[in-house]
Amino acid sequence: MFKLLQVVYDRILALKNGLSANLARWKDQPDTPATLDGLLTQIQQKNQEIKALEVALRERREEARELARTLTAAAEQIERRASGIHATDIERLADYDVPVPGVVPERRAATVPEKAVLRQITDDDDGHGFVLRHDKLDTADHYELERGHSPADRPNERPAALAFLRTTKKLKNVDDDVQTGIRYWYRVRGVNRRGPGEWSEVVSAIQ
Predict the structure, then answer these.
(1) Core-most of 41, 94, 143, 181, by most CB within 10 Å?
(2) Which of 151, 132, 138 lies closest to 111 in space, CA to CA?
(3) Could you tell me how many helices (H) and strands (E) the chain has, helices first?
(4) Rounded to whole angstroms, how far apart are CA atoms 112 and 167?
């Protein structure tokens, strides 16, 4: 559940439990277990809306990555044509920001990033969520994180596949959207204009 919603959900649930245990003292008050259930339902519905948007965002990001791969191939083909057109005047390739043979600008990565290393997973300072730390890759422009979780009844079983979590330039990331008692699995990889590097080893932790 979304962290802010979880906090107020737990608070209202505790109030409902207390009210239910002392109904006789609340008989002339407007608050009842049913009214508090209504508040809890509002929180659950809003959380479901957030979940649906997160799923939609992951799908759009995957579509964007596929589009980027397709258009990268198209761009490379045009660059090759430009190299052919200016074969006798290669200095003109600078007009297209195409590498001139024999000259490799420092800002251009020659290869995809090396294998990433997810160094550490620790509990967040507030006790809810995880702090993920991974090593810096000099050849990476940004990083992609993936996450999965074990079934509730099989807490140590690694999921068959991990799903996209986020794109980031940070070496320290916080994942607050976790549930107590569930084991979560993470991995990271670096990405540059040449493409994604190799995924890190998968690391897991239980809240």
Answers:
(1) 143
(2) 138
(3) 2, 8
(4) 16
